[in-house]
């Protein structure tokens, strides 16, 4: 009998569907194909907008608020903090975008591969009919990436990539640093408004007062919107890492088939072994230790 979980999986399970002869081997890859980049117009546009919004915030923070300020120490400290966080946010975004999230090799549903699994009677392997691959447990097919992704959480157009086993750290850092620069810019806007109300408006910015107000209000909206959005996303991601249940598994209420681990072990599986400052660095590729062998047979 099919369980709830089996009914929900986007796969075909019976042996009759496994027609390895229909799976043509994938074409030979050229060097450009080795760089993971999803050619999706909507995703590319969202990714470009993300970068432009960060640069807009940079512009307002530096040219409207920090450079005209008379308090040099305030400007230097806030300038360094804001630029560092913005740099880390953009590096996290870039790495989340160009890191293979854990794609299952295309077209591996070949006769040889299935035979190599040495299936016993009653054992089932899952084949993705869309990308002709035998997918490991917890992998799902993404229709944008056109691949099966291991531990796929969701496809995020803002990073133009799936969030999966290999790039979740970068995605979590991206949401965290965007939330931090949003909060930081909101605090600076509030302080700047207070300062300008006390001082002469013409002296608190090198731009005209109306331009200054419009630019600051736009930054305020941007900061609020992205603070809420990324803080919620960050919380959701950390929760799903701690409970070791991906967004898709929560959505589909999939039955847990994998071993339960402690929250700390789950965090280390995403951010790397052992705990270090590298957890906060998007420049460091997480050392995920000895990864669990991929389970093809259910
Ligand atoms: Zn697939
Ligand atoms: Zn995807």
TrEMBL record:
<feature type="domain" description="Palmitoyltransferase DHHC">
    <location>
        <begin position="127"/>
        <end position="253"/>
    </location>
</feature>
<feature type="transmembrane region" description="Helical">
    <location>
        <begin position="42"/>
        <end position="66"/>
    </location>
</feature>
<dbReference type="GO" id="GO:0006612">
    <property type="term" value="P:protein targeting to membrane"/>
</dbReference>
<dbReference type="GO" id="GO:0019706">
    <property type="term" value="F:protein-cysteine S-palmitoyltransferase activity"/>
</dbReference>
<dbReference type="GO" id="GO:0005794">
    <property type="term" value="C:Golgi apparatus"/>
</dbReference>
<feature type="transmembrane region" description="Helical">
    <location>
        <begin position="72"/>
        <end position="91"/>
    </location>
</feature>
<keyword id="KW-0808">Transferase</keyword>
<keyword id="KW-1133">Transmembrane helix</keyword>
<protein>
    <recommendedName>
        <fullName>Palmitoyltransferase</fullName>
        <ecNumber>2.3.1.225</ecNumber>
    </recommendedName>
</protein>
<keyword id="KW-0012">Acyltransferase</keyword>
<dbReference type="Pfam" id="PF01529">
    <property type="entry name" value="DHHC"/>
</dbReference>
<feature type="transmembrane region" description="Helical">
    <location>
        <begin position="170"/>
        <end position="193"/>
    </location>
</feature>
<dbReference type="GO" id="GO:0005783">
    <property type="term" value="C:endoplasmic reticulum"/>
</dbReference>
<feature type="transmembrane region" description="Helical">
    <location>
        <begin position="213"/>
        <end position="234"/>
    </location>
</feature>
<comment type="similarity">
    <text>Belongs to the DHHC palmitoyltransferase family.</text>
</comment>
<dbReference type="InterPro" id="IPR039859">
    <property type="entry name" value="PFA4/ZDH16/20/ERF2-like"/>
</dbReference>
<dbReference type="GO" id="GO:0072659">
    <property type="term" value="P:protein localization to plasma membrane"/>
</dbReference>
<dbReference type="GO" id="GO:0016020">
    <property type="term" value="C:membrane"/>
</dbReference>
<dbReference type="GO" id="GO:0008277">
    <property type="term" value="P:regulation of G protein-coupled receptor signaling pathway"/>
</dbReference>
<dbReference type="InterPro" id="IPR001594">
    <property type="entry name" value="Palmitoyltrfase_DHHC"/>
</dbReference>
<keyword id="KW-0812">Transmembrane</keyword>
<keyword id="KW-0472">Membrane</keyword>
């Amino acid at each position: 009998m099919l369980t709830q979980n089996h009914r929900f999986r986007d796969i075909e399970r019976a042996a009759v569907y496994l027609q390895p002869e229909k799976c043509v081997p994938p074409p030979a890859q050229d060097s450009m194909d080795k760089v993971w980049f999803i050619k999706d117009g909507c995703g590319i546009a969202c990714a470009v907008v993300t970068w432009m919004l960060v640069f807009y915030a940079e512009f307002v923070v530096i040219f409207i608020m920090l450079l005209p300020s008379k308090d040099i120490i305030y400007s230097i400290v806030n300038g360094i903090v804001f630029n560092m966080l913005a740099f880390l946010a953009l590096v996290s975004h870039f790495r989340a975008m160009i890191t293979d999230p854990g794609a299952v090799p295309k077209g591996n549903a070949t006769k040889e591969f299935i035979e190599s699994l040495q299936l016993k009677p009653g054992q089932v392997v899952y084949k993705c009919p869309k990308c002709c691959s035998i997918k490991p447990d917890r992998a799902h097919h993404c229709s944008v990436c056109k691949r099966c992704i291991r531990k796929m959480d969701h496809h995020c157009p803002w990073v133009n990539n799936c969030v999966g086993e290999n790039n979740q750290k970068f995605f979590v850092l991206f949401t965290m640093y965007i939330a931090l620069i949003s909060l930081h810019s909101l605090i600076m806007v509030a302080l700047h408004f207070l300062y300008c109300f006390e001082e002469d408006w013409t002296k608190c910015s090198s731009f005209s007062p109306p331009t200054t107000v419009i630019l600051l209000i736009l930054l305020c909206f941007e900061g609020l919107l992205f603070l809420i959005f990324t803080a919620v996303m960050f919380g959701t991601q950390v929760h799903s890492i701690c409970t070791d249940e991906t967004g898709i598994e929560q959505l589909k209420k999939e039955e847990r088939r994998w071993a339960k681990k402690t929250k700390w072990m789950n965090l280390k599986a995403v951010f790397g072994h052992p705990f270090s400052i590298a957890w906060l660095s998007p420049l460091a590729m997480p050392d995920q230790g000895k990864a669990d062998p991929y389970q093809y047979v259910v």
